[in-house]
Amino acid sequence: MAEPVSASGFSLPVRVYWEDTDAGGVVYHAQYLAFMERARSEWMRAHGWGQERLRARDDLVFVVRAMQIDFRAPARLDDQLQVSVALVECRGASFVVAQQVLRGDAVLIEAKVRIAALAASSFRPRPIPQPLQSELKQNLVESP
Fold first, then answer.
1. pLDDT tens for each residue of 17-68
2. Of 18, 43, 32, which is closest to residue 102 (Cα–Cα)?
3. Which of 52, 62, 119, 122 is most buried by a 10 A CB count?
4. What are the structural domain ranges in the chain?
5. How many CB atoms lie within 10 A of CB 126?
6. In this structure, are residues 120 and 60 in contact, taking their beta carbons and an 8 Å threshold?
7. What is 10-138's CATH superfamily?
């Protein structure tokens, strides 16, 4: 179960399964992107802004525009991880989140992810709706 949104951000527990690993039982590097995507989706849902609702009601989708990742240490089969999300910047049509993948207190991955807002109908840039932008800005945290 995801942790509630707080001043320090949001965290989603993730267990490592066989399908997440390579032949050596180490998490395949691209799988971390899926872990972080799930955490961002649940973070939005925890704010009351599910992605299907945004697409259907507001003609809005979010896409990854850019990502910086620092791979520090590997996760392995059966590890229990925490994937965090903290909003560190919010602009009119994009925002940036800092994410970490942790095993206990050990930071395995650190990432900065720029998310762009697009119209679902055209995939062209568009502003983040004001109610959502206002709520996002209330949850800004200092960059870790």
1. 999 999 999 999 999 999 999 999 999 999 888 889 899 999 999 999 999 9
2. 32
3. 62
4. 10-138
5. 19
6. yes
7. Hotdog Thioesterase (3.10.129.10)
